[in-house]
Amino acid sequence: GSGMSGLASLLLSLGHRVSGSDKVSTKETDRLERAGLQFYCPHDPEVINDAELVIFSSAIREGNVVYDA
Prior knowledge:
This protein has 69 residues and is an alpha+beta fold. The protein has a single domain, classed as NAD(P)-binding Rossmann-like Domain (Rossmann fold, 3-Layer(aba) Sandwich). Helix content is 35%, strand content 9%. It has 3 helices and 2 strands, in the order H-E-H-E-H. The radius of gyration is 11 Å and the shape is globular. The two termini are 21 Å apart. The relative contact order is 0.19.
């Protein structure tokens, strides 16, 4: 969503390593990948194993494989 992409853009511009996942790739995820985002499609719980911080969109609920990990 627009909130998460804005947050990802900010964190990337500050030099943080940022990753994200979604059900589909979009023009926005493509833009963020060019800026350094590590994007995973579809959702993959393995990508959060070494994360220092995990932020979920309000659209993510119980039952999502990453949320439940």
